[in-house]
């Protein structure tokens, strides 16, 4: 498959002849150290418009932490000097020896402060990122845009210059750091002054680079939420002029060249006049700069983020354009984030449908949220958990920032409270009630959330248990924002009745409670009417009553074939087997009556071409989830090592969920790491009560 073309700024445009690295020498300061972050991750935000992904807050936070760990271990490099860090362009060839570019350095200086609290070394890393910037300034006191990964020397021809997107993100990162730890005010305001003097054209629009002409601009640099933060932080410059002119340029372009789709080209000329227009093809880069390309795929990320943070009254244009852009992406991709092409004509048709990239689909997420498109938002959130094209620095770094936004953990330094709020949290129980027969157990998902301040350790206890009953939390303490599973086990002698159980979370800031009502019935019961509870259990009505998903865009519920026959009938649920990395799911929600025993059964057939007797690159599992989507239990776990001819019936006891509404979810995952492929097929499912 094709990979993206290298994104290289033209050195023929605006080359300067002066020596660099002098403008901020007098203002460089020693590393700043604070007692701790003011806004520790996770910072759960209530955005002003739109929807959130359907996954629980705890699930979203955990996904961000996992992505950050991966990004940091792969791209955050300690070098070139002992007090420097840089973001490597590994996998994309944007600089020699995987060196840094100012764009990536700015991304890192945004990501690291937002993850402070989770990452105990965040401020040390930020100071190292900032130190490398200070050590590699151009003649205007802004960062040399491209450095070698071993020497950290500027290696292109001509006098070093700076790129506006990197300069803008670095300035925003300094403001984030100042709010997070304090001590960066002088550096931030000096940087913003240099940015104003050299990256802002006289009429207020953003130039493409600090030594470039005053006539062009690049829409992917139009990070309006950053500019609003500049305006709130730095009153010595008229940033409202920059915001207004930037919006006017974008509005004119949309009206005249992409009124229905809202798309903006990679580069724009005539930005200083009344009729800005898409730049000619190959204006600055070796790709058609007159359409959407690897630069402007970032626009819906920035437009959507500004709309989420600032709402319809402040960010009216951004919200309107986000809605158009995400609708275009949904249409042209066939509702599949993996098929959002990195090159689009301004009329919302694919320019090159053979070129694919992870970041093109990732960047749509904030706009889908702002537009209120729940299903599209959920698909993009799921897509973010993958890297189908093996993208490197550019895609994985954009993904990290987009995931922070979509998780609800992206806070704006323009709107944070001063001083930061005191730490506090909440506790919830799901479901709020349950029923068990004597001698059985009930499980409850106990959620916690940060309601203000930073996350803290919360110890969990339960009181109000009936005689003979015990309570166990797994784990017994969590960081606020995470969840635990409470298991209430009754004895055969526990009296029948309904008992209000109080779940208490205790932290250094205080205690909070949640209530759970447990009904205990006699072991003989006599109240259960035997039944089979699943609708369309053999899939003979297609996907009716089931939900399904596939990271490759397939439908697991399908007609059987001679290669993969049904156990009975003519339909099956068929997971994976595409010789590609893929995750497929099929799920149905069911309510198990109180006082009943319940058994899950299904027929499973696995065949594989994996050549291993020990490794498990391909897996299949059956799980029980609560109404919030939290996994309560894995009741069946298989892999390519379970391959066999024909079907075998699998069973699981669901009696502990009597009185609860649960979701049964079957998930097949294939990694495609060893060349083989695995098919997992189920048929004739049932949940039988007695």
UniProtKB/TrEMBL annotation:
Entry-linked PROSITE patterns: PROKAR_LIPOPROTEIN
Keywords annotated in UniProt: Glycosidase, Hydrolase, Signal
Annotated spans, Disordered: 417-440, 669-690
Organism domain of life: Bacteria
Presence of keyword Signal: yes
InterPro entries: 6-hairpin_glycosidase_sf, 6hp_glycosidase-like_sf, Glyco_hydro_8
Gene Ontology molecular function terms on file: hydrolase activity
UniProt xrefs under SUPFAM superfamilies: Six-hairpin glycosidases
Bias (Low complexity) ranges: 426-440, 669-680
Signal peptide stretch: 1-34
Family to which the UniProt record says this protein belongs: Belongs to the glycosyl hydrolase 8 (cellulase D) family.
Protein name per Swiss-Prot or TrEMBL: Glycoside hydrolase
Source organism: Catenulispora pinistramenti
């Amino acid at each position: 498959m094709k990979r993206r073309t290298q994104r290289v700024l033209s050195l023929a445009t605006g080359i300067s002849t002066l020596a660099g690295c002098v403008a901020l020498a007098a203002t460089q300061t020693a590393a700043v150290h604070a007692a701790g972050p003011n806004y520790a991750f996770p910072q759960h935000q209530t955005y002003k418009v739109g929807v959130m992904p359907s996954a629980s807050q705890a699930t979203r936070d955990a996904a961000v932490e996992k992505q950050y760990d991966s990004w940091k271990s792969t791209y955050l490099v300690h070098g070139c000097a002992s007090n420097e860090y840089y973001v490597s362009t590994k996998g994309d060839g944007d600089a020699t020896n995987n060196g840094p570019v100012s764009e990536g350095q700015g991304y890192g200086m945004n990501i690291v402060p937002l993850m402070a609290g989770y990452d105990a070394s965040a401020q040390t890393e930020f100071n190292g990122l900032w130190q490398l910037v200070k050590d590699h300034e151009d003649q205007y006191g802004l960062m040399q845009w491209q450095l070698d990964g071993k020497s950290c020397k500027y290696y292109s021809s001509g006098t070093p210059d700076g790129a506006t997107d990197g300069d803008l993100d670095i300035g925003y990162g300094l403001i984030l750091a100042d709010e997070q730890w304090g001590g960066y005010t002088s550096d931030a305001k000096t940087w913003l002054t240099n940015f104003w003097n050299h990256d802002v054209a006289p009429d207020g629009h953003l130039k493409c680079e600090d030594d470039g002409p005053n006539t062009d601009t690049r829409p992917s640099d139009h990070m309006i939420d950053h500019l609003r933060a500049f305006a709130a932080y730095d009153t010595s410059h008229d940033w409202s002029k920059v915001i207004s002119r930037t919006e006017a340029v974008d509005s004119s372009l949309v009206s005249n060249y992409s009124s229905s789709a809202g798309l903006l080209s990679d580069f724009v000329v005539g930005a200083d006049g009344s009729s800005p227009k898409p730049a000619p093809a190959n204006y600055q880069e070796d790709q058609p700069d007159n359409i959407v390309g690897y630069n402007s795929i970032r626009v819906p990320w920035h437009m959507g983020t500004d709309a989420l943070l600032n709402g319809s009254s402040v960010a009216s244009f951004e919200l309107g354009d986000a809605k158009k852009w995400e609708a275009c992406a949904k249409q042209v991709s066939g509702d599949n984030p993996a098929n959002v092409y990195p090159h689009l004509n301004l009329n919302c048709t694919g320019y090159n449908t053979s070129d694919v990239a992870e970041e093109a689909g990732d960047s749509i997420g904030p706009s889908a949220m702002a537009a209120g498109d729940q299903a599209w938002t959920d698909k993009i959130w799921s897509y973010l958990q993958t890297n189908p094209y093996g993208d490197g620095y550019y895609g994985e770094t954009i993904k990290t920032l987009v995931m922070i936004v979509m998780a609800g953990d992206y806070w704006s330094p323009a709107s944070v409270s001063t001083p930061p709020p005191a730490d506090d949290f909440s506790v919830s129980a799901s479901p709020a009630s349950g029923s068990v027969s004597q001698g059985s157990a009930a499980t409850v998902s106990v959620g916690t959330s940060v309601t203000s301040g930073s996350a803290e350790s919360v110890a969990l206890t339960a009181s109000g248990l009936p005689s003979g009953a015990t309570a166990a939390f797994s784990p017994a303490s969590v960081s606020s924002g995470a969840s635990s599973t409470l298991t209430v086990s009754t004895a055969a002698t526990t009296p029948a009745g309904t008992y209000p159980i109080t779940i208490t979370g205790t932290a250094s800031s205080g205690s909070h409670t949640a209530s759970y009502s447990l009904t205990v019935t006699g072991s003989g019961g006599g109240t259960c009417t035997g039944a089979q509870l699943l609708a369309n259990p053999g899939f003979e009505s297609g996907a009716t009553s089931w939900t399904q998903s596939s990271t490759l865009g397939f439908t697991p519920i399908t007609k059987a074939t001679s290669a993969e026959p049904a156990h009975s009938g003519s339909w099956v649920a068929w997971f994976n087997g595409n010789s590609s990395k893929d995750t497929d799911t099929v799920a149905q929600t069911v309510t198990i009556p109180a006082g009943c025993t319940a058994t899950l059964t299904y027929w499973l057939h696995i065949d594989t071409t994996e050549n291993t007797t020990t490794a498990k690159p391909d897996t299949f599992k059956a799980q029980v989830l609560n109404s919030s989507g939290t996994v309560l239990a894995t009741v069946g776990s298989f892999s390519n090592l379970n391959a066999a001819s024909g079907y075998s019936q699998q069973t699981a006891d669901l009696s502990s969920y009597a009185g609860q509404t649960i979701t049964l979810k079957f998930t097949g995952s294939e990694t495609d790491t060893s060349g083989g492929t695995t098919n997992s097929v189920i048929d004739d499912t049932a949940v039988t009560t007695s």
